[in-house]
Amino acid sequence: MAEAVRHDKTARQLRLLSDALDSGRLGPVRRLVNTLAPAEIGNLLESLPPAKRQVVWGLVDPEDDGEVLVHVGDEVRESLLADMDPDEIVAAVEDLDIDDLADLVEDLPDTVIDEVLKSMDRENRERLEQVLSYQEDTAGRLMNPDVVTVRADTTVDVVLRYLRLRGELPEHTDHLYVVSRRHQYLGRIALQVLLTHEANTPINQLIDDEQPAIDVVESGDEVARKFSDHDWISAPVVDDGNILLGRITIDDVVDIIRDQAEHQALSAAGLDEDEDMFSPVPRAFRRRVVWLGVNLCTAFLAASVVGRFEGTIQQIVALAVLMPIVAGMGGNAGTQVLTLMVRGLALGQIGSSNSRTLLWKEVRVALMNGLTLGTLLGLIVWVWYRDVELSLVITSALTINLASAALGGVLVPLALKRMGFDPALAGGVILTTITDVMGFLSFLGLATLILLR
Amino acid sequence: MAEAVRHDKTARQLRLLSDALDSGRLGPVRRLVNTLAPAEIGNLLESLPPAKRQVVWGLVDPEDDGEVLVHVGDEVRESLLADMDPDEIVAAVEDLDIDDLADLVEDLPDTVIDEVLKSMDRENRERLEQVLSYQEDTAGRLMNPDVVTVRADTTVDVVLRYLRLRGELPEHTDHLYVVSRRHQYLGRIALQVLLTHEANTPINQLIDDEQPAIDVVESGDEVARKFSDHDWISAPVVDDGNILLGRITIDDVVDIIRDQAEHQALSAAGLDEDEDMFSPVPRAFRRRVVWLGVNLCTAFLAASVVGRFEGTIQQIVALAVLMPIVAGMGGNAGTQVLTLMVRGLALGQIGSSNSRTLLWKEVRVALMNGLTLGTLLGLIVWVWYRDVELSLVITSALTINLASAALGGVLVPLALKRMGFDPALAGGVILTTITDVMGFLSFLGLATLILLR
Fold first, then answer.
1. Residue contact A229–B353, C-beta within 8 A
2. What would the pLDDT profile of B296-336 be if each residue is shown by its tens digit?
3. For the segment A290-322, what is each residue's pLDDT rounded down to a tens digit?
4. Which of A145, A392, B156, B326 is 20 to 30 Å from A229 by CA-CA measure?
5. Looking at the structure, do residues A28 and A67 belong to the same domain, yes or no?
6. Is A265's CB within 8 Å of B265's CB?
7. Residue B286's closest chain A neighbor by CA?
8. In a shared domain, residues B183 and B220
9. Are residues B441 and B302 in the same domain?
10. Which residues in chain A have their CB less than 8 angstroms from residue B440's CB?
């Protein structure tokens, strides 16, 4: 329901826009587009086929260009940049926050980067270079060096006068940071604390030093986790000497959380979260064919198991009819366990201390499922083929395959994680190979042993 | 890599805790647990098997009990509540924020709810009843009625004096809300604006009325979307008469975004995001068996297609060996398209105006994949069986099935959405049924037509 509302709204905008584009009336399109926030424009551009996308991109207020570029996936961004002059690009990005600019800079042509650097003042250029010196997906790349600092040996009144002199504060400033003479991070003061204390209160009585600073080399995932565990709005970033380098704000963290979720959902299907929905057919083909090729290899592995039993199938052709059921059910059951494991691993909830308990639980659940559904399946097969032995074979085979699925569902992601691979990416392919192979092997193997006696 | 760091850290905590629990030394466990934030304790409790979970839960500082309850899934929460006396529960929840309390209240026993209501003062009781009067998953249920309001006809100085008198502000207050005499929402003033303007500045010069208020009946998804599109930290909530009712803060929105992502990942495998990883075997069994039962029915549908061709398979047993490849590859390719569609629909990026373009693109990609991989498959089959006609049959069947997969991958989620169902939940089952049926039908059907001439 809820999603439907959202969907209707954007779909209506899309339709309005499409109709206006089709009729060539660009005035209304421009007006519609420029009532939207940059992130919304980005969303809209991502949902337009290339030709219309370029038209709408040309109508976006140049002031918003930079922010829109920040809010689209890599592949769409590339297509938008391809459409701009170097001058336009420089104008678009030069007013961005340092962290956003750092995010974009790698996608820009070298000549443009030089121009952008030249257009910046020395302080900002140094800040950008500093941010870029940290590895992608670390706190250093997420931080904005623009922070407001105060000294501990002063009073509320002095700070208030300083702030009035300074004028506007950086966006989402909810705390001032207290630093030593050597710019070491000592603690923070909430704006609301400043507002609710008398003018003559010494600053050092108001310092909150409970929130630990974030280490500049910490991973983006770790940063996101801390923000959501502690309900932070912003957090200071320090180097290993505790020198304050910048601050990370919740809006960037929300983007990380969204990206993580997309990555997990898409990588399970062998997709990239930066893929343009309307990317050119040859490009989409090249990307998909690799993944499908891997799956083709695993399918051959399963087929070669069936090939071993050609003689059995020749004698009892019902086996060919029923074998996809045994294999497929294993795949379904295994995917359930795998999905729970991938989530548990991502949340850090699964380790050596509880994985055995989990494995044992899942195997028991699988045995109950196997006996229940296996018996049901056996009954149906009996009604279909009137062969008690065939029924017993499929009941046993399903139970064996569901138990294998549970074992694989728990152990495959644990092993992948230990080897440093992403369980969300490779887990599904490996697991369904196991359940296919085990399904065919147990069903056709038992059939050969029991039915061909 | 990034995830591995987090994983190592929590896994180490888990191991330490487990070792300490095993040895019966509860002192270190208590100390370890109470260095953690409530959300971290919740995460830890979710990763413990029931027996250890109850021990650790007994060691949590009672002051944190309420916040921990807010941060665990429904099923784990139930198990924790089952362990507490009514008095303990009342003590745990009575200091929670109204929005958190509203979130919990439905899981509490009726007698406890009465006790909690009695322990509250009249103002808070009325606020709670108001929040509870809105539907779950709407802005009304997410908001906290505790807001700081000021009048427009005053000055910065007066407001500052009022704030100093008032003392502490509600958590995450970044704006004060300006209301009329009738409590209608007029706009907001950032704390940093108050701090950077002279004492005698009139408030009505500082009002920001650009951010639209959130309607109290808006869905949680819509609220989350707005927050992330506009980088909001907090937003006012109003009724249809523009009366200010409360405010929503980003920390609750982060929870919604996480829940959405979990829901999407888990529902595709027929799982519930509130499932306890260690739920009792009979309960887990009951839940899983329903989903697997549905899949069993669809597997029979596919098997019955194979059953139609028993005669053909009897004559050419190679077909039984190869048919799972054709069906399985269709499933893989279809899942890729479905995953992209589910994401696009969730983001509101797909509507009637672009779905045809998308369909056409995906069909072309599928045809290229089909011809490439089909030819490869045909070659391998030729090497294996030395039968040109069989090779041609499998090449054509794979191409047909990949094209069906693309059609189904685009059309199934669109149709589900239109009928008001969740494409993430039912899409996979329907789609793999289509690709299984089409895979068997095209391969065995073509084989019957061409090879048995």
1. no
2. 999 999 999 999 999 999 999 999 999 999 999 999 999 99
3. 999 999 999 999 999 999 999 999 999 999 999
4. A145
5. yes
6. yes
7. A369
8. yes
9. yes
10. 324
CA distance A111 to chain B (A): 31
B377–A197 CB contact, under 8 Å: no
Looking at the structure, tell me whether residues B365 and B401 fall in a common domain: yes
Question: Is residue A265 in some structural domain?
Answer: no
3 state DSSP class of B120: coil
Do B66 and B153 sit in the same domain of this protein? no
Beta strands B234-238 and A214-215: pairing type?
unpaired
Q: Which domain holds residue A165?
A: 149-249
Q: What are phi and psi of A25, to 5 degrees?
A: -85, 100
Report residue B208: phi and psi, to 5°.
-100, 110
* B183 and B295, same domain (yes or no): no
Q: Give me the pLDDT at residue B415, please.
A: 96
In this complex, the residue of B2, B365, B377 whose CB is nearest that of residue A219 is B2
Q: How far is CA A419 from CA A24, A355, B169, B258, B295, in A?
A: 56, 16, 49, 27, 33
Residue A407 near residue A387 (C-beta atoms within 8 A): no
Domain count, chain B: 3
B352/A11 CB distance under 8 A: yes
pLDDT tens figures, B344-389: 988 888 888 889 999 999 999 999 999 999 999 999 999 999 999 9
> Looking at the structure, do residues B96 and B34 belong to the same domain, yes or no?
yes
Cβ neighbours of residue A337 closer than 8 Å, sequence gap 6 or more: A362, A366, A405, A406, A408, A409, A410
ipTM above 0.85, yes or no: yes
User: Quick one: A308 and A439 in the same domain?
Assistant: yes
B41 in any annotated domain: yes
pLDDT band at B7 (very low <50, low <70, confident <90, very high): very low
Spatial neighbors of A378 by CB under 8 A, at least 6 apart, are A391, A392, A394, A395
Chain B residues near residue A422 by CB distance under 8 angstroms:
3
Give the C-alpha separation, B249 to A244, whole Å.
27
Asked if residue A4 has pLDDT above 60, the reply is no
Measured between beta carbons, which residues in chain B are less than 8 angstroms from residue A356?
Answer: none
Domain boundary among B83, B103, B137: B137
**A306: domain CATH number?**
1.10.357.20
Across chain A, what does the average pLDDT equal?
90
Q: Is residue A139 part of a domain?
A: no
